Amino acid sequence: MLRWRFGNHDIDLTDRGLIMGIVNVTPDSFSDGGRFNDPGRAVEHAFTLIAEGADILDIGGESTRPGAEPVEEAEELRRVLPVIRAVRSQTKALISIDTMKAAVARAALDAGADIINDVTGLRADAAMPRLAAETNAGLVVMHMTGTPQTMQANPHYDDVVAVVRSYFESRLRLLENEGIDLERVVLDPGFGFGKTLDHNLALMRELSQFATLRPLLIGVSRKSMISKVLHSDEMDDRYWPTIALTAHAREHGARIVRVHDVKPNVQALRMMEAILNGA
Fold this sequence. Notes:
Elements: E1 3-6, E2 9-12, E3 18-24, H1 39-51, E4 56-60, H2 73-90, E5 94-98, H3 102-111, E6 115-118, H4 127-134, E7 138-142, H5 160-177, E8 185-188, H6 197-205, H7 208-211, E9 216-218, H8 224-230, H9 239-251, E10 254-259, H10 262-277
Parallel strand pairs: 3-4, 3-10, 4-5, 5-6, 6-7, 7-8, 9-10
Antiparallel strand pairs: 1-2
């Protein structure tokens, strides 16, 4: 069995994957920046995603798109805490806090979040591994080269698949040495975070190389790699390819898919699982 255990949750991911719906409480996220910057609109959007079938809500108050400027801790807290509190008061859906800051993660957990999703793999803030060890939160450990400000400045790898796998193995050893139960951890290859189109496509082809380590989460929803393949700058043209990538990822071992458009990706996931496991 493939399990993700954290808090009071014991999730069997062997045959059924999860959809993580994106709630960006930001003015500058690449796809929907500003649409849900108001806490009230963000909460309304969160419940729309739940109604469409989201298993997890990933709530973030700092954009990590290429070139994004850092956000002060107080401002990030101002953005996310009202949303987390409101959502938690009305639903038992899993809540993930998308942050690089330990203080934001701690406050989010206190407000009702279940999972820490750190795009730096718990590296940006020295207090984050300690916080992870002190709590029983779920952990998403992502690979990123550089920072959001620098990550797309000519990224280079001799073998991106080998580098990302080695990184995951190293991070898992470090977390285990911190006393963290690895059954709390899922891994994210970090599509678009310090990778060229060729790097992203190589990672997508070789997802099975990572899925043997821990459950695998992928986030490719509406990302620029799609526009580069299609030679189109229209955001709407990224909708259907995202669904195709969801189906491919599930077929090749991913268990959690982070998306903006929940309903069609839930449908793609369930259809692929019927093919893999039987209806």
